[in-house]
Amino acid sequence: MILILVDALRRDHVGTYGYHQPTTPFIDELGARGVVFEDALSQAPQTLNSTASLFTSRHFPLLLWGVEHDPIPGVADDRREQWARTPRLAAANLTVAEVLSAAGYQTVALFNNPHQHATSGFSQGFDSARLLDRDAGQAYARVDSLTTAFLDWHSGRDPERAYFAYLHLMEPHNPYRPPAEYQALFPPGSGRHLYANGPPPPGFTGSDLETMTALYDAEIRFLDDGLRRLVGELELRTDLEKTLIIITADHGDELLDHGGLGHGKTVELELLRIPMIMTGGPVGPHAGTRVEALVRNIDLAPTIVEMAGLDEPGDFQGRSLVPLIDGAEPAIEPPEISYAWIAELRSLTSAEWHCMRDLANGRLTLYHRSEDPRGTLDVAGERPEIAELCLAALDRLEAEGEEARRTAEALKTVETDGAITPENAAVLEQLKALGYVEE
Ligand SMILES: [Zn+2]
User: Cα 428 vs. chain centroid, distance in angstroms?
Assistant: First the structure.
């Protein structure tokens, strides 16, 4: 099993989802040979929260904020402080890699985003996990470097035992610096590369946006060609039909859809909608299937576990997508919803609606997805009954999130030798009772 996560790949810039530029001929081929999920959403518009939810199948993974990290290999000194401020994924979380490892799978992770550094907690469950060093002159290791690292691992694995590989690819994350031959495929024009997370820099023009879009697309094509090489090499070595390959993303990237660039600053759908494609292994007999139902990144761990023939652990909040792939579940009642959050922003998405709440100012925005897929018209005032339903659901989730934050705060005392305060001592006792923390 290979789970390939493409950082910052927007769903609507992938050919199989209707993009008009030739960005992803290989991913499209995999989609035609496998199952394409039409409406997949991530649980956050940013890497750390999104992948934490993916690994744990939880809306609120236990994240330890404000803990010290060891020096981070592969990360330049000037950025270490920034990454050291990011939370650690608590050891008390159960991850999909831990479930597979306990069942005898060989497990490997090749991380390429410094959020997942050696002491970030993302390595749990992997026999082998490392953050790749940056390529010379690059912001991160390119797809070919990651491919080489993975093939090296693949050569040394035990061929008699099943494996689970997590590959985190960084194209097309910023900065958009595609090789020259890819810029020739997607001519960037005369605009400037002015990346930002949030509002664009002053003086940003339409021609700058065209340039940014072309460079982003060229990065995607570079990634797609790299994936073709990676999968092609594997095909020479093994019967790849038996290997499940999942391709998805942690979030999209904004190209002025709602007045901004980059990601992590809004919970708009261009950041939450992601590609999700599966091919090979148990998906093989279902080639050509396109699943219309709304699915989530937290559904991947239960799906992988079921496809491995294992019992689903009680910790997962997602649901297995196997019945949808088999076509045994044509309609789901009640309709599935996806929840996402970052900082003070919360969102809830159903097949029909997308609502967003800003806790900082209480503002609620509601879009009708089929009538307004780009999210241009706030109808919260015209559909107060839907807005009320959304608010109530968000309140329930917020309470769940608050409980997870309190639990994580107490866990810090266990996992990082912090001082136990009266406030978290009670939570700690509860954690012991539930078996999360050993006496
Ligand atoms: Zn990311």
Answer: 30
CB 163 within 8 A of CB 108: yes
Question: Cα separation of 51 and 49, whole Å?
Answer: 6
Q: Is the peptide bond before 172 cis (omega within 30 degrees of 0)?
A: yes
CA–centroid distance, 55 to ligand 1, in Å, is 14
Cα–Cα distance measured from residue 66 to residue 391, given in angstroms and rounded to the nearest whole number: 30
For residue 7, the CA-to-ligand 1 centroid distance in Å is: 4
CA 46 to ligand 1 center in whole angstroms: 5
Identify the domain containing residue 221 by its residue range. 2-326
**Distance from Cα 47 to the centre of ligand 1, integer Å:** 3
| pLDDT tens digits along 54-109 | 999 999 999 998 887 776 666 666 666 666 678 899 999 999 999 999 999 999 99
Instruction: Give residue 9 CA to ligand 1 midpoint distance, Å.
Output: 9
Q: How far is the CA of 58 from the centre of ligand 1 (A)?
A: 18
CA of 250 to the centre of ligand 1 (A): 5
Residues with CB under 5 A from ligand 1 (ion): 7, 47, 250
Token representation of residue 133: 């060093």
Residue 99 lies inside a defined structural domain of this protein: yes
- Between vectors from CA 62 to CA 101 and to CA 114, what angle results, nearest 5°? 75
Distance CA(25)–CA(31), nearest Å, equals 10
Is pTM beyond 0.90 here? Answer: yes
Report CA(8)–ligand 1 centroid distance (Å).
5
285 with 352, same domain: the answer is: no
> Domains in the chain: how many in total?
2
**Same domain for 320 and 282:** yes
d(CA 264, CA 246): 24
**Cα–Cα dist 178/172, whole Å:** 9
